[in-house]
Amino acid sequence: MDIKKTPKKLNVKEKYRLMTRDLAWEPSYRDEKEIYPYVDYEGIKVHDWSKWEDPFRLTMDAYWKYQAEKERKYYAIIDAHAQNNGHLNVTDARYLTAIKLFLQGISPGEYSAHRGFARVGREFAGVGPQVACQMQSIDEIRHAQTQVHAMSNYNKFYNGFKDFATQRDRIWYTSVPRSFFDDAMSAGPFEFLIAIGFSFEYVLTNLLFVPFMSGAAYNGDMATCTFGFSAQSDEARHMTLGLECIKFMLEQDPDNIPIVQKWIDKWFWRGCRLLTLVAAMMDYMLPKRVMSWREAWNIYGVENGNALFRDLARYGIRPPMHWDDVEKSIDHTSHQIMLGLYQWKFGTAFHSWTPTDSDIEWLKEKYPTTFEKYYLPRWEYAIAQKEAGGEYNNFGLPKLCQTCQLPCLFTEPDDPTQLAHRETEYEGEKYHFCSDGCQHVFEQEPEKYIQAWLPMPALMQAPLKGDLAAWMEWVSLEPTAAGEYANSEDKANFEKWRKQVSTD
Amino acid sequence: MQIDVQTVSIEQKNKAFSHLIKRFGDKKIPSRYQEASYDLQAVENLHYRPTWAPEQELYDPNLSKIRMNDWYDLKDPRQFYYSTYTLNRAKQQETMESNFKTVETLGLIEGMPDPVLAIVQDVLIPLRHVNYAANLNNTLVCGYGYGTVFTQPCVYHAMDNLGIAQYLSRLGLMIGDVEALEAAKQDWMDSDAWQPLRRSLEDLLCVRDPVEVFIKQNFVLDGLLYPLVFQRIVDQNLVEQGGSGISILTQFMTNWYLESVRWMDSVVKTMAAESAENKAVLEEWIDTAANHFTSVLLPVAGLAVAGNAADDLVSDVHDELMKRAKKAGLFK
Q1: Per UniProt, what is one Pfam family of this protein (chain B) (predicted)?
Q2: Consecutive H or E run containing B85
Q3: How large is the ipTM?
């Protein structure tokens, strides 16, 4: 062979093919099934892995270069934020509840996604999806870490941050996001991609990130909005991957369509239930509001969702089952969740509060058909109790939904005066659900969901046996981190420090 | 509201996150590496068992024969978390970029003797497939290993292996265009010299014990391959024959290997010190794999040097590896 030739100019696609696709080979000493043992059992048929279209053609040298640039900027900003007491720039200390919830609930999810994408980045039998998933895996650990680093400074001054690692595994409300990510990770590689890559990243991520990051920007939290913006270009890649993977599955074999549809139904519903916490954040936890949950849903849920499912219709995919139930719930969920969090505030590592007069005016305006009629009276009751020197608490333990793990506090889709409650009997045991959607998910795979770790029953069993103080110790919940915002150390300190600033 | 807050000095409430105080006390502010690495993985109240292997836990230390009381003992002496990792690699890729440019501008490849280029073609370019296997193996360890300080560097290592495969591909394109890559793949698939290694890697890709994969791929195979190919064949033999330009283009691999050795040795040492049982398992893995891979690499070395010299090279690197193992507390 002539080994001194002037190299041809290769186009990007061809060059990327040589740099990734061409590295793999067809094994001949071992069977592919031994190397990729988990690629078949979900029933997805793949005839030709090479049909996978690389969603982004990024070689490692380019990846290192771009990402390092972003890292440099990011850490410069959060260092400055820490040095300059940037935490005193937030609107007021109520805002911190939003980011405490983020650190306890979402950052561990980023970590799970990191591990999950590493697994599927190994299990897929094609080098295209392998490399794409590995890149997402390394991005996801970036997100978990930048979030922990941003919150580290808040932890120095406020309650509710320091025990996030224990609370991730033990406190009751974090089991909502945890069970979501555990559910995805314990599924097969294709379902994992539909769950995280498609439903979460593609359909729902805008509803999580846009509200959170604009909320941070509106409320003066430079640290959080910086990680949001820094993560944005990663997210764009992840969304492309999510869409590519679903198209790939649908194009490989018509038998894949009903399987994929089933997963879309499941993960859309699981995702929407998870996002009810974001709904409460948007409507109640931001001292300066960006937009209502309803407005966010109209843009990022309805508009984007319609366009997407119109596009997928040509594959024979229909919009997710229970879409209508979600639509009907949008004007209700944030109020229902926040009332729930408020009445169980003795057991949360963040503060909650009753809405102020101006909050109430805003909520009335944004939810003209529901807030005043159904939820204002309940808030007024809580406010009256507070004014009479009492406190509105519910020391009864909520019944948790076996699937989404939220308390069964949602109402019937067509009757906001009726609590929804569903039951299924499986092998002689009764299981409870908050909705038709969650019951449906359970009934598709009861042998999976009966394994769910439910934090409320755990409190009643040995060794805690219903001892609330012992439970608080076990979940590392200090009384100062919990309860009503008005009486909190966070509020007192924040106001004292701010005063110090203005008198200096 | 923008306020001037620089002048305010306020008292801190918490020195650090509780899980870090529990591990390291509260005398020192935890490093960003510690914050980014310790206790990030869920440990208890895992919700569901994997549908792909219901006998396993979602994070399961028992996937390995190696037992650790605390997997977070296996820290990375380089203290890599995403940021330090990418900043380091970005710097190295900048150097490599200018190295490629230098070699191109000076026309170093054109001026290189044919025998040198033949060795590059026969020995270096097929290695991109070895890196691909290493990429998959490290991805497995990251996915299924236990504890973030152990699993996190494995995803970096996986991406590094992909990066090296891509540098080797560029080198191939430089010396012989697409045909160079095609010929190397042909060798990888069919030529006698490469078949034992390819077979061994296909075997390793079937192993599911994450620590076993880690040891055999990273400690043993890389511990023989990099000293053999990059330190000896490239940096000594090829340089002597007028191939310094190649050594410039494999600088990343040489430095990366030296850096990785620190991490490997520290992990092996900590695992070995944990218990006699661990020590026995590690010795068994390393001894068998070292002998096996040494024999597998012999025909590869033979592509670069003749007869006895190849024997000497591989037995040299075998000794070097066993010295590292001894230093880590094994085989004593």
Answers
A1: Phenol_Hydrox
A2: helix B82-105
A3: 0.97
